[in-house]
Amino acid sequence: MRILALGVVAVLLAGCGGAGESGDSAAGVRNETAGVTDTSVLIGTHQPLTGPAAPGYATISKGAQAVYSYVNDGGGIHGRKIDYRVEDDGYNPTRTVEVVKKLVLQDKVFALVGGLGTPTHSKVVDFLTAEGVPDVLVSSGALAWDDPQGSPMTFGFQVDYTREAKILGTHIAEAMPGRKVGVLHQNDDVGRDGMAGLDRVIKDAIVSRQPYDPANADVLPQLTALRQSGAEVVVCECVPAFTALAILTAARLGYKPQFVVSSIGADVTTLTGLLADFGKRAGAEVSVPALLSGMVGAGYLPDVDSDDPWTTLFKEIHAKYIPDVALTDTVVFGMAQAYTFAQALKEAGRDLTRSKLLAAFESGKLEGPGMTPFAFSGESHAGYTGAYVFTVDSEVRTNVVREPMVTDRGDGPVTPAPSSRKTPAEVALVG
Amino acid sequence: MPALVRHLLWALLALVLVVALSLVIDPFTNVRLASVGYYLLAVAGLTVLTGLTGQVSLGHGAFLFLGAYTVGLLVIHAPALPIWVDLLAAAAVSGIAGALTGAAAARLHGPYLAGATLALAVGLPAVTQRFPELLGGSNGLGFTVSSLPPGLVGVVPTTRWQAWVVWATALLALVVLANLTTGPLGRQMRAVRDDEVSAALAGVRVGRTKVLAFLISAVCGGLAGGLQAFLLGTAAPGSFTPALSLALLAAVVLGGTGSLWGALWGAVALVYLQAGAEEFAHGFDLPTDVANFLPQAVYGVVLIVVVLVLPNGVHGVLRKFSRRRKESTV
Amino acid sequence: MRASSARLLGVEGVTVRFGGVTALDGVSLDVAAGTVHGVIGPNGAGKTTLFNVVCGFVPAAEGAVMLRDKRLRRTRPHDLAGLGIARTVQGLGLFGGLTVLENVLVGARGHQRSSALGALLGLPGSARDERRLAERAEAVLAELDIARWRGALPGVLPHGVRKRVALARALVAEPELLMLDEPAAGLSEVEIEDLVALLRGLTDRTSVLLVEHHMDMVMRVCDHITVLDFGRVIADGPPAVVRADPAVLTAYLGTAG
Amino acid sequence: MPDLLTLAMGGLTNGAVYAALGLALVIIFRATRVVNFAQPALALVCAYLAFTVNRATGGYWLGLLVALVAGAVLGALTERLLIRPLRSRGNELAPVIVTLGLLLVLQAVCGMIWSAEPRSFPYAFDFRGAFSPASVFVVVTVVVVAGAVLLLFGATPLGLRLRAAALRPDVAGLLGVRVGLMLTIGWVLAAVVGALAGVLAAPPFLSPTVLDTVFVYALTAAVIGGLDNPVGTILGGFVLGVALSFVSGLLGPELVTLAALAVLVLVLSLRPHGLFGSSVARRV
C-alpha cells in the first residue's frame, strides 16, 4: 500500500531531470544464466516474416532453424538443445522494440542472435546493452554494430557494406579500368555505407548515383538516368528483388551495362528464380543466362554451387530438414549464422554464462562457414572482414575471379585473405 | 457533482488501478500496459474526430509520426529538457499540423477525406528521406529516454515507471476528452456529424467545429506518438505506415465508435489481439508460412465479424449487458 | 388585429435566376415585428427560394434583404442565429444521434457564453453555462409539451412530436424572426389546432414568417399573407383581402386544375 | 537532360494500372457508395491464381482468363456475404472496416499459400523498348476496357438499370429493376476490372504487398478525378502515373509519395469533389 501511494505521488509530481540525459539506467544484477538450463538454452531473434521486407528475408530463420534442429538431433551443445524463438517484427522498428523486450523481459532469452535490419535492430542495441543480453551476429552490414565501447554486447556478422564496396571498387579499378561507373543504391545505410566504400577506391570514375526507395518498385527513372549518364558499369547496392528489377529494367531499355552487385543482392539462386519466367515467354535474349551472364557479384559465404565442404554439409541439412524451401544464399546465410552461434556456444564451455559467450566471441577462435575471417576480438566486434568476387557464366554458374580479400572500413589496403579455414569436421559440433 | 470533478476522480481511480496493476505484473507486461495507454490516447482522439464529428481519417498515424519525431529530436538535441516539456512540444506540433489538416479537409466529405488523409499517412513519413541528416532517413531516430526521478532509481523498475508516466499523461488528456464528449462541444460535434445544414442553422460554426475536432484528435495523436517514443526510444518511418492508421481506425470501430470506453477496448485489442494471435499461431505445428500470416488473418476476421455482428462494437455489447442487468434487478 | 409597428424584415425587389429560369422576379414584402406572416403559392411558385434568399443561401441577382434597417449580405448559415433568425427546414433536419433535449440544446448555441477552451477544461463557468442552457431548453420543452420525450432519440418519435422538437430547437434560440417551412405538413387536424394556438401565442416574443400549403391553417394563423406565383407577388395583405383576390383564385385553380 | 520520353512512357504504363484499379473503385462507389478497400487484395488473389495457372501451363492467356473469372466470383461473394448485410446500416464506417478486414484476410491467405517471397510474373508480350509491346498492351487494354465500361453504363439497358439501382434504388425497385441483383452485378464488374488491373500490375514480381502502393495511387487518381466519374478517374490515373514518373526521374524517388499528397491537396482544395466529380447539392 505504501508503494502504491508512493507511486501515485511520484507520478503526480513527475518532476524529473532532462529526458535526454543519461544516467538512470538502473543497472540491476545481471542474470548471467538467463534462458539456460542443463538441457536447453533459449535464444531469440527478430525477423521480418510479414510485411514489406518479408520477401527475400523470411527464409533466413528457416535456414537457421534447420541448423539448430540438426544440432539438437545430434545431442545439442554440451548436452543443451537450442530453443530458437523467432519473433515477427514486420520490419517495423516499433514492433522490433516490443518483441525484443518480450524476448528479454518475459521469455528471458539467453541471447539475441541475428536480429535483422538496420532501422529495426539499431533501436534495441542500447536496451540489450543495458540489460546485459548478448546481441550477436546481427543480420545487417551497417557499421554501427562494431562499437565494443558503447555496445559491448553487440557483434556483427556479415561483411559491412563499406568493406565490401572497397573490394568491389578495387575489382572494378583493376578489371575494368577507365570505364564510367554508375551506382544504383537503396536510399538507406546499405547505399550510403556502400558508396562510402566505393568513394575510397573509385570516386573519380563515378558519373551518376541513383537512389531507389524500397517502397517504390518502379526503377525505370533511375535506369534511364544511369543510361543517360553514359555509365558502362552499374554498381548495384541493392536487395535481390531490386537487383532483378534493375537487370530487367535495363533489358527493357536496351541498356547493357556491366552489373556489379554487392553480396546482399547477388544471390544468384534467388535472381535465377525471379528472372526465370521472362525468357520462357519473351525469348532467349531475356532468358536467365542472357540476363545474368557476365554479372559480377560479391560473396563472403560459400557459394551454393561450389563443392566447399560447408556447402556439402548445408545441402545435407537442407535436404533433411527443409527440403521444400529453395536453397538460396539467403537460406545459407541463416545456416551459416546459426552454425557460427552454435560454435560459439561450444567454445563458451559447459558452464554456460553470458560472459563466457561474449568471451568466446572475442577469443578470435570462431572460424567457419565464411570465406574470410571474423574481425572479432576485444577491440573489434565487426563480422566478416572481406569478400570474394565472382562472375556468372553463360550457364549461370558462379566462378570466383578474385579470391577472398580482406580490408578495413577506413583507408587501409585490400589484401588477400588467409587461405586456411576450418572445415565442418574440424569444428565438429555434432558427433 | 460537476463534470470536471467527476472526470478527475475517475482518472485518479484509473491511475490508482494502473499503478496497482503495474505492481503485480512482470516488467514486460508493464511495457504492454504502457502500450495500451498510448494507443488508448490515440484511439480516443480518433474517436472524437471520426465517431463524434463523422470525419473518417485514414491518416491518423501521421500525427503519431509527428509526435514521436518531436520527442525524439528534443531528446537528442535538447537533452536538458524534462520529458513533460518534450511531450507538450509534441502535442503542440501535431496540434498545429492537425489544425492545418482540418482547415484543408473541412470541405471534404466521406471518401474524399479518406483518400486525402490516406495520402497524408503515406506521404508525410517520406519527409525523413528528404532530410536524412536531421531525421535519420529510413533508419529514423534511436534514443534512450531517461526520466526516472533520481529518488526512484533502483526502487522502481524502469518499465513500471514508464507505464505510470504514459498512463498519467493519457488519463490527463482523457479528462479533457471526457469534458468534451459530455459537454456542449461534443454535442455540437455530433450535431455536425448528423446534419451539417441543420447544425449551421442552429448557429453551430460547422467548419470551425470540424477543424477543432481535427486539432484535438491530432493533439491526442501527437501525444500518443510522443509517449510511444518515450516508451520505446524510437522514431522511424517504418513504424508509421498506413497500416498503423488503418489499425487505429479499426480499433475505433472495434471498441465502439464515439465512446471513450470503446477507445479503451480498441486499444486493448490493438495490443493483445496481435500478440494473442501470434501465440495462438505458433502454438500449433503449422507450416511456417501459415503460422506467419495467421495473426493478420485472425485480425481481419475479427474486424469483419465485429462489424457484422456487433454494430456498436465491444462497448455496445457491454452497455446492453449492463443495462439488462440493471433492469432485471429493478 | 395587432398594430403592426416597426418593419422587422424587408424583402425589396429581389430577383433570383437559376441559369435561364427566373425563380423570383422582383419580389418585395415586409414582415412587421410581432406578426405572423405567411407566404403561400402553388408548387414551384418560389416560396422556398424566397426563404433561401432571406437566409443568404441563394444570392439575389437584384434587390436587397433588410433586417430592421441593416442590409443582409452573404450571410453564412451559422450567422443567422446571431442575427436573431431561426429557421426550420422541410425535412426537419433533427440530429438522429442526439436526444430530444440535446437537439434543443444545440439550438441554444447562440446563448452560450463560455469559450471552447473553458468547455474542454471543464471550468466552473462552463458548467454554470451548461446548467443555464439546460434550464432554458427544459422550459421550451415544457412549453411545447414534449418534456417527457427529453431522453429519447428523434428516430423513435411520432412525426408530430418530431415537428415540435424542430420547433423547440428553433424557439430556444429566442429569435426575433422565426422562419417555418411548412410547419403543418403531415400533422393531424388536432395537431394543427394546437399549432395555431401555439404560433398565435408566440407573437409577443417573436415574428413568424412561414411557408405553408395548408390554406385553412394559413388563413387562421397569419396576420398578413403574401401570395407568390411563378416567382412574382400576385397578392399581398391581410387574410381577408387575399382570400377575396380573384388573382389568387385563378393562380390556384389554374395550376391545380 | 533526362530522357523525358522514356519517363513519360513508363509513367503512362504505371498510370494505366492506377486507372484500371481506380476504375474498379469508381464502379463500386457509384453503385453502393462504398470505397472498396479490399480491392487490391481481391486483385492480388486473382493475380496469384493467374500466376499458378501460368506456372502450370506455361501460357499467359489462360491465366488471365482464370483471374477474370475468379474476380467475378470473389466480387459476387464479397457483395452478397459482406456488403449486403450492411446496406440498411446507414453507417459510413462499417463498410470501410469490413473491406479493410477482408483486405487483411485475403492478403494473409495469399501469404499462407504462396509465401511472402516474390514470384516472377511474366509480361503478356515482349517488354523491351520504350514503346514495348507489353506496355502498349497494358495501355490499350485499359483504354479499351474503360471505353467498354462507359459504353455499358451509358448505352445499354443493363447500364441504365445499373445506374437506376445505384442512384434511386427505391424508384428503380418500383419500376421492376432487381436492385439487389444490379448491385451484385456492379461488384462483379468492378472485381473483374480489378482482377485485370492486378494481372497487369503484377509483372515482373508478385508478392503479397505488391499492390498496396498501386492501390494508394489508384485511390488518389479516383479522388483527383472524382470518385463518381469514371472518365475523370481514368484521366487521373494516367496523369498521376506520368507526373510521378517525372517526379521520380527529375527530383528523386523519395519525393514520389509527397508529390502524390501535394497533387491531392492542391486538387481537393480547389475542387472538394475532384476535378470531374459532381457535388450533389445538399438539401436545405
Features:
heterotetramer, A: about 425 residues, alpha/beta, Rossmann fold, 8-stranded mixed β-sheet, 5-stranded parallel β-sheet, about 40% helix, about 15% strand, B: about 325 residues, mainly alpha, two-stranded antiparallel sheet, 15 helices, 2 strands, about 0% strand, globular
Description:
The complex is a heterotetramer of chains A (about 425), B (about 325), C (about 260) and D (about 280). Chain A has helices spanning about 1-15, 55, 60-75, 95-105, 120, 125-130, 160-175, 190-200, 220-230, 240-255, 270-280, 290, 310-320, 330-350, 355-360, 425, and strands at about 40-45, 80-90, 110-115, 135-140, 155, 180-185, 205-210, 235, 260, 295-300, 385-390, 400-405, 415. With about 425 residues, chain A is an alpha/beta fold. Chain A folds into 2 domains: about 15-160 and about 305-385, 3-Layer(aba) Sandwich (Rossmann fold), CATH 3.40.50.2300; about 160-305 and about 390-415, Response regulator (Rossmann fold). In chain A, β12 (about 400-405) and β13 form a beta hairpin. Chain C has about 260 residues and is α/β, with parallel strands linked by helices. Chain C contains 10 helices and 10 strands. Chain C has helices spanning about 45-55, 80-85, 100-105, 115-120, 125-145, 160-170, 190-200, 215-220, 240-245, 245-255, and strands spanning about 5-20, 20-30, 35-40, 60-65, 70, 85, 175-180, 205-210, 225-230, 230-235. Chain D has one domain: ABC transporter involved in vitamin B12 uptake, BtuC (Orthogonal Bundle), CATH 1.10.3470. In chain D, strands 1-2 form a two-stranded antiparallel sheet. In chain D, α2 packs across α9 and α6 (about 155-165) crosses α8 (about 180-200). Mean pLDDT of chain D is about 90; it is low at about 280-284. The chains are: A alpha/beta (about 425), B mainly alpha (about 325), C alpha/beta (about 260), D mainly alpha (about 280).
Task: Please give the radius of gyration of chain A in angstroms.
Answer: 23 Å
CATH fold call of the largest domain in chain A: Rossmann fold
The tally of beta strands of chain A, per DSSP, is 13
- Basic shape of chain A: globular
How would you write the strand order of the largest sheet of chain B?
1-2
**Rough outline of chain B:** globular
Helix share, percent of chain B: over 70%
Counting helices, strands and paired strands, the structural category of chain A is alpha/beta
Name the biggest interface: A-B, 57 and 64 residues
Straight-line distance between termini of chain B: 24 Å
For this structure, the quaternary state is: heterotetramer
State mean pLDDT of chain A (0 to 100 scale): 89
The count of helical stretches of chain B stands at 15
For CATH, the homologous superfamily of the largest domain in chain A is named as Response regulator
